[in-house]
Amino acid sequence: MKHILEHARALRGPLRSIAMDQPDKQAETRASLRVLAEEVAELGRPDLDAIMSDALDAADGHADEDIDRLLEKLR
Asked: In this predicted model, what pLDDT tens digit does every residue of 21-38 receive, in sequence order?
C-alpha cells in the first residue's frame, strides 16, 4: 500500500502541469497512471477501482482531482 501512496503522490504534480504541447510527457504520465490503476486493482477494492476509472477517463489536467480522492480514501 505504501508504494501505491508514493506513486499516487508522485503523479499529482505532473497531472496538474503537463501542457497540451508536451505530447511525450503526456504519454509518459498517462502510462504511469495506467500502472497505478493496475496496482490499485490488485487491492481488490471496487471503490478505489471506480476512482481510478474516473482518473483514466479524465481529460488531461483533471485526473489530479481523482488522485486526490484516491489518496483521501487510502489515508
From this structure: 777 888 888 899 999 999
